[in-house]
Amino acid sequence: MSKNLVIVESPAKAKTIEKFLGKDYQVKSSFGHIRDLPKKGLSIDVDNGFQPEYEISTDKKKVVSELKKAAKDAVIWLASDEDREGEAIAWHLCHALKIDPATTKRIVFHEITKTAIDEAIKHPRTVNQELVNAQQARRILDRLVGYKLSPVLWKKIRPGLSAGRVQSVAVRLIVEREREILTYAPTSSYKVAGVFLVEKSTELPAELKQKYDDKASAHELLDSLSSATFTVKSVDQRPGTRNPSVPFTTSGLQQEAARRVGFGVRQTMSVAQRLYESGLITYMRTDSTTLSKLAQDGAESYIKKNLGAEYHKLRQFKTKQQSAQEAHEAIRPTDLHKPSAGDDANQTKLYELIWKRTIASQMTPAAIDRTEIGIANDKTKDVFVAKGEVLRFAGFLKVYGGGKEDVILPELNIGDTLDRKEISATETFTKPSARYSEASLVKKLEELGIGRPSTYAPTISTVQARGYVEKADIEGDERPIARILLDDSGVSKSSETQTYGADKNKLLPTSTALVTTDFLLKHFTSIVDYDFTAKAEEGFDKIASGDQDWVKMLDDFYKKFLPLVEESDSVSRQESTQTKQLGVHPKSGKPIFARFGRYGLMLQQGETESEEKPLFAPMPDGATLDNVTLEQALEMFKLPRLVGQTEDGKDIKANIGRFGPYIQVDKLYVSIKPLDPMDITLEEAREHYAKKLQQEKEKHINEFDNGIKVLNGPYGPYVTDGKKNARIAKTTDLKTITAEQAKEMIAKAPAKKKRYTKKRAKK
Q1: What is the value of pTM for the model shown?
Q2: What is the per-residue pLDDT across 290-312, written as a single tens digit (0 to 9) for each?
Q3: 425 and 352 fall within a common domain
Q4: Options 190, 212, 283, 351, the catalytic residue
Q5: Per the CB 3.0–4.6 Å rule, which of 26, 156, 511, 712 could disulfide with 600?
Q6: Separation CA 483–CA 677 (nearest Å)
Q7: Does 669 participate in catalysis according to the annotation?
Q8: Which domain holds residue 672?
Q9: Are residues 455 and 525 in the same domain?
């Protein structure tokens, strides 16, 4: 039996630490949190100081039992992560193992190296109750919001929705940005650019700094320049520098990993976690940009040895935001003499990015020569400007590149005459703010002070999982662009087509997000208020530093929050779902509404309260509650549309459903994306139907007299009796399976998990 038991939260971390400790130490994992609030029920005594009712998770009871056994007669060292979450894990372990948090040894280290662990063992402390209280306050506040507000959304908008203090604010940001884009009215202007010839052959591109507001003015300018003489008015040369960026914080790593290696926020954190647990990088949840003396010395040693002393410059970066959750350092490699590391391609990519950023932060600036040439003419006051940039000394760019390529301008003197090759005026349009990507949303949340390093990735994952946000590519639209050209043939006009608005991997709000955000903004303003959410984060920081009482903070919030929940009960469902009457159907005389339904935006013909059941239709593609018209709605009520008949005389109906456009033949539904049900031809419909029949034929491999079938599903072949499914090994010859074998497979297969469905109360 070991004399010492070290408990960490991760098996991978345990495996790495075990390498550095002697035989007197046993290292075990708690596999994350072992106690939490129960999944069902509020489990918080709001009348008794917001006391939480924690329980050991069902899947952790065996872990706790094993830890208790290992802890017997051993000195216990709690070595979970050094942030609030890690402190809470240590505190919960004390309660689960029935040991005193005020006396149990607690050790922390921001890197998993022998030096760091030995140092931590020499200087143990006890559980920091203030950090625990900060984590508890966050957990309880989020539970109060979720469990009190989510049922309001179920009742007023649709079942299954959820609300969260940070997630609802993140959704609001995405909704407001989308509405800003949709209502943005672009303005056009004309950008004037010229190509001039130096000594009859070398081309020199240049542009006017100012733009022209309209086509006529641009045309007039080019007319006047057709006979102009062009001369060099100025040559301005000046040295410049580029400085390296700060070492990585959590949000900085998430943003740069998205830009440089194409990782999503969640993927970045997952890969970074594995690098940390393998002892390759320091702790990856941090607000700090500082580097330890050890790291600075390591960087200096590597740079001087491998690049040269002229490339080294000692730097220490100050952290902008001093929060109690801040770790000791920025994210950096534990060994700066190791440029590459990792167990797979993704780990290697992320490690190298962290290594380069850290090394670059301790390097000299890049030295650049910037040149600007002004080109005047004898007909107008307009001056064309040519810009060049030459890298004279790479500095940090030698390691952390991605800089601009050299633009070398020809040697010119003031007064030199230039020939005009061509001058063009091209129509350009102003652009709205860009849609959020995962990385840019993290940046915005950080700017607003919303969330902390540990919350960014789960927040972005949650809003997508809950159906508020979709990550998608936008195809864009086309528009004509006017162009005026002056060359040796004179002035001519032309038009070309430009695609605008196209984008990739951007976060788009769903109709659920639009309606829910509007409801929360109207009735729960404080919950989605940016300032309130940021101040809540500041409150958690104050609790962690011992400057605020956690119970008082929760009490102040709850006194204002509970009345809002009670007042929302009087809000009608029509108001909350933003039901909007578009007009009256010309034939039926019934009112037509646009509203939010269980599966999103929809159209309704007739009153819900009337004896006659209303008719429903899907919303036109791209339409919203704000812009849908009666004319569009009337078209949608023509669905389902009879396209024609199959070759054996069955009706083919085209419609739009929850999952998009489809055709229906008897009880068979066939997706027709991206075709429009309004104009799909009979030939196209028959082609889709034939393909579906072939798929169904290939799906059904065999059927036995006992009702059991052998089918080919999207995840491979299986047998089913309609109640239970059993997978078939890939090596099995499907045609040789007998009825008895199929029956035996079904008997051995695990029972289907029951799906939880909320029963609707009778009216």
Answers
A1: 0.79
A2: 998 989 999 999 999 999 999 99
A3: no
A4: 283
A5: 511
A6: 38
A7: no
A8: 641-699
A9: yes
